[in-house]
Amino acid sequence: MERGGIVDRQKVRQVLEQVRVGELEPEEAARIFEDLQTEDLGYASVDHHRALRLGFPEVIFGEGKTSDQVLGIFRSLQERQDTILVTRVDTDKADRIVREAPELDYSPVARTLLYTRKEVEIRGRGPILVVAAGTSDLPVAEEAVVTAGVLGNRVERLFDVGIAGIHRLLNHNDKLRAAAVIIAVAGMEGALPSVIGGLVDRPVIAVPTSIGYGAAFGGLAALLGMLNSCAPGVVVVNIDNGFGAAYAATIMNRRDSLKRFSSESS
After folding, report:
1. How far apart are CA 110 and CA 143, in angstroms?
2. Which H/E stretch holds residue 31?
3. Res 62: pLDDT
């Protein structure tokens, strides 16, 4: 592995094995790891070590950043990572970025930019099911779909199945039970995760959205409703945080996470 190249957990294991069998001098291995540091771009401090600590590189939050700032962080990460995700990018900003970096794929519904140098390895035990109460919740739900997919999960969708027509949800009991983890996205009163939590023995990650009329208070009503759920197994992330829900679902779904937990507990 060349110095300054892509470094992740797999590559580190390869380098250490090369040192172990005598194919690589320790000094050369040390030089390879010197680039695992924080890079100061002036407007951002890029964390190149995150892929080793967490298993996935730093994700760029696009909201509030200029297109030039997003591009600068992307180029810095691109030198060292196979996969890069940018979230919360509106269409106008995405157009400017993609003109400079056509290798990025834009999803206008999810508002994400995605770069993949190679096919993402599936590492989840089973599918993550993203359930959305209504069509208005799709931007948050699709952010969860894109994030969960790029983190190495098989992802399935179940959209527009809110409790205003609960038969729509009950028609998909088999799909709910087949999921390893369920992400339930809802605005208004936020009752969908509680209903799902009462139907399945799976972790349910509730995502309140800022969809609703005045007394919804920009998602606060849904957030409080989900936090007060009487269904067991329901946990809640912040308002509109599809990314955070998908990241948490990935940790729950990882085969290697379970192995580490088992070895540490024994």
Report:
1. 4
2. helix 26-33
3. 94
Place of tokens 């609703």: 212
Strand 105-107 and strand 83-87: pairing?
unpaired
Report all structural domains of the chain as residue ranges with CATH numbers, in order of start: 1-34 (no CATH), 37-116 (no CATH), 128-253 (3.40.50.1970)
Q: For residue 236, give the amino acid letter.
A: V
Q: Over 60: is that where the pLDDT of 7 sits?
A: no
Q: Which of 23, 29, 37, 38 is nearest to 11 (CA)?
A: 29
pTM of the complete model beyond 0.70: yes
Q: CB neighbours of 239 closer than 8 A, spacing ≥ 6?
A: 208, 209, 210, 218, 219, 220, 222, 223
**Alpha carbon of residue 98 to chain centroid:** 21
The predicted-structure confidence for 195-245, as pLDDT tens digits, reads as follows: 999 999 999 999 999 999 999 999 999 999 999 999 998 999 999 999 999
Helix (H, G, I), strand (E, B) or coil at 103: coil
- How far apart (Å, rounded) are the C-alpha atoms in residues 40 and 32? 19
- Could you tell me the two tokens for 81? 């990572």
Beta strands of the chain (E only): which ranges? 38-40, 45-47, 60-61, 83-87, 105-107, 112-116, 128-132, 155-159, 181-186, 204-208, 234-236
The structure tokens listed for 197 are 């939590």
- Copy the structure tokens of residue 130: 């993203």
- DSSP assignment of 110-151 equals TTEEEEESSPPPP-BSSPEEEEESSGGGHHHHHHHHHHHHHT
Bridge partners, 156 (sequence order)? 129
Q: How many CB atoms lie within 10 A of CB 140?
A: 30
Q: Which two tokens stand for residue 169?
A: 């949800």
Q: DSSP label at 247?
A: H
